[in-house]
């Protein structure tokens, strides 16, 4: 796979590992009902003020591999000297960071080298935070789009690339020079599991069709039907024993376990043998999407809405021709596994044929997200003017665009992250989507500029509580969040624990690093952190003296566990004694996990 090299790459390619972990200092909580409050809102929504590189690192203990969706709108690097949110990399904080990390080479860097040095470690940390099924959307314009594509292929994987969307940002062009008019931007989409996409236009569901999950004549095999699968059987609570046979006509099912229905849903996973039409992966996916169901005869069918056909057409209109041409056979084969006789296949072939008949592809706008349904810069600007009563921000993205991108995934729950938060459109969009579909999405917004509180957070407050536009009242979205600033590094320059951050933050970090779960300070015994999966965790630490794990220290252990993980400065217990009693010693600070 081709990779991109630039001056300074060798200094930043692994720099994300060296970024210091800083604690997050809680400043205030906010709820739509109470407004600002000293105590945490504990809603799961967070706004963080600080350098996004360090802020992303601070999220790793709690959120590594847990973020479902990322949207970022990074600096576009237009080369203008005046700093604006999506402009060049001559911001004082970025220049200072490049000088410290890249060193003497910094004098030879072009603005493109600087931009790549800035972006690479941030994208690396975002890739670590993404869930294995996570999706990332990245907005960019002509200045860096080609270079961004290459480093994203390197970081997220070329096979994870889904498509490039083209967004019309303006209803009228802006003359950047005498030869060029700028009306478009690009959105790169990467995802390791393409099945999480629910379509890119969000049409209203219409006619419903159903398909049998069994195809007589296929080879008999077993499939696991997941718990939670819905049922239209006449009895909502029903049990059918292992070995039971269900038959009608030429279709025949045999249970390899008890089938138990409770309140119209399958209570347990159950193995069923039949002549299946679908693979196990597809059966699991359809159950997850709530398309799979037991019929009145206890057969299995799948619901398919007409919107599936519309979404396919929409995809055809929005991906580049080369992508369609390269993937058409793969797409058709995959669809034929599910719907061998479907009109979808016929339409797909016809659509591709019509594209292949076009000789002048420069005149075919097949990847355009036109501004009639996706919003424009003008729409984003009008939204902010309505919320604040005046212009407060340049080039905000419209909620139409971000909401539709976020809704194009199947995720109605989970963490949605924006590490270049700007005016807070992503947080606004998350709250709006939750209100529309009843989802429980959570946002994390990171903004390094001083307006993080006055604009980013203030916008979320206003749309949460509601606001006035002339004589009209806009109903609030009932949001809440906690506001943080970056605190001190957890480790000092000698890699010892930085006691200035406070013992509570240190204990919280140790617990996160061991269990990947939220920390709740116990009130039971000294040095005790908590218990998880029958392992008891202890952090024997004192600010002014060294601690030792010995037999006297064991007298302090009150909580029983199958295993003990104990941190201390030194250990004097015999190795055979520790092995016999399942004691794991971890030396402070050597054995503390670094993220």
TrEMBL record:
- Mind listing the UniProt keywords for this protein, alphabetically? Methyltransferase, S-adenosyl-L-methionine, Transferase
Q: Name one GO biological process term.
A: methylation
Any Pfam family: N6_N4_Mtase
Recorded catalytic activity of this chain's protein: a 2'-deoxyadenosine in DNA + S-adenosyl-L-methionine = an N(6)-methyl-2'-deoxyadenosine in DNA + S-adenosyl-L-homocysteine + H(+)
Q: Which GO terms describe its molecular function?
A: DNA binding; N-methyltransferase activity; site-specific DNA-methyltransferase (adenine-specific) activity
Q: What is its EC number?
A: 2.1.1.72
Q: Which SUPFAM superfamilies would you find in this protein's record?
A: S-adenosyl-L-methionine-dependent methyltransferases
* Class of this enzyme: transferase
Q: Which Gene3D superfamilies match?
A: Vaccinia Virus protein VP39
Domain DNA methylase N-4/N-6 spans what residues? 67-456
Similarity remark: Belongs to the N(4)/N(6)-methyltransferase family.
| Protein name from the UniProt record | site-specific DNA-methyltransferase (adenine-specific)
This chain's source organism reads: Gelidibacter salicanalis
């Amino acid at each position: 796979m081709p990779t991109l090299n630039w001056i300074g790459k060798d200094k930043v390619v692994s720099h994300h590992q060296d970024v210091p972990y800083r604690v997050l200092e809680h400043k205030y909580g906010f709820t739509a009902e109470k407004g600002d409050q000293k105590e945490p809102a504990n809603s799961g929504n967070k706004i963080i003020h600080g350098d996004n590189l360090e802020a992303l690192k601070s999220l790793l203990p709690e959120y590594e591999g847990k973020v479902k969706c990322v949207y970022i709108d990074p600096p576009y690097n237009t080369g203008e000297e005046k700093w604006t949110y999506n402009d060049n990399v001559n911001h004082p904080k970025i220049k200072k960071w490049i000088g410290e990390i890249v060193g003497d080479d910094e004098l030879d860097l072009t603005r493109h080298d600087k931009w790549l040095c800035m972006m690479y470690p941030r994208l690396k940390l975002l890739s670590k935070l993404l869930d294995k099924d996570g999706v990332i959307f990245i907005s960019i314009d002509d200045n860096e789009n080609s270079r961004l594509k290459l480093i994203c292929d390197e970081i997220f994987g070329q096979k994870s690339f889904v498509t490039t969307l083209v967004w019309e940002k303006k209803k009228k062009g802006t003359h950047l020079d005498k030869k060029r008019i700028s009306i478009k931007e690009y959105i790169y989409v990467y995802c390791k599991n393409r099945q999480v996409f629910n379509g890119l236009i969000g049409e209203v569901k219409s006619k419903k069709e159903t398909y049998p999950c069994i195809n007589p004549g296929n080879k008999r095999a077993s499939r696991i039907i997941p718990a939670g699968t819905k049922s239209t059987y006449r009895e909502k609570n029903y049990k059918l024993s292992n070995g039971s046979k269900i038959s009608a006509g030429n279709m025949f099912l045999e249970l390899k376990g008890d089938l138990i229905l409770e309140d119209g849903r399958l209570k347990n996973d159950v193995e069923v043998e039949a002549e299946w039409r679908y693979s196990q992966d597809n059966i699991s996916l359809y159950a997850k999407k709530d398309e799979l169901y037991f019929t009145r005869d206890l057969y299995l069918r799948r619901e398919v809405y007409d919107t599936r056909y519309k979404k396919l057409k929409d995809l055809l209109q929005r991906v580049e021709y080369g992508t369609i041409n390269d993937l058409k056979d793969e797409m058709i084969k995959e669809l034929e596994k599910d719907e061998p006789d479907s009109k979808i296949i016929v339409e797909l072939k016809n659509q591709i044929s019509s594209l292949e008949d076009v000789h002048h592809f420069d005149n075919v706008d097949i990847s355009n997200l036109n501004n009639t349904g996706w919003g424009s810069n003008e729409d984003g600007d009008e939204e902010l003017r309505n919320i604040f009563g005046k212009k407060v921000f340049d080039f905000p993205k419209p909620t139409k665009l971000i909401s539709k991108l976020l809704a194009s995934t199947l995720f109605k729950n989970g963490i949605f992250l924006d590490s270049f938060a700007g005016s807070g459109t992503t947080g606004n969009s998350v709250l709006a989507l939750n209100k529309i579909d009843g989802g429980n999405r959570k946002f994390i917004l990171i903004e390094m500029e001083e307006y993080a509180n006055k604009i980013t957070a203030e916008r979320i407050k206003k749309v949460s509580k509601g606001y006035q536009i002339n004589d009209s009242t806009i109903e609030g979205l009932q949001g809440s969040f906690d506001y943080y600033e970056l605190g001190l590094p957890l480790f000092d320059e000698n890699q010892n624990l930085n006691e200035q951050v406070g013992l509570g933050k240190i204990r919280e970090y140790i617990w996160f690093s061991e269990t990947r779960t939220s920390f709740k300070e116990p009130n039971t015994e000294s040095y005790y952190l908590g218990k998880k999966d029958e392992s008891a965790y202890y952090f024997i630490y004192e600010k002014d003296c060294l601690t030792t794990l010995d037999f006297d220290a064991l007298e302090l252990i009150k909580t029983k566990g199958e295993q003990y993980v104990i941190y201390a400065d030194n250990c004097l217990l015999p190795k055979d004694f520790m092995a016999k009693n399942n004691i794991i010693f971890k030396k402070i600070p050597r054995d503390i996990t670094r993220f």
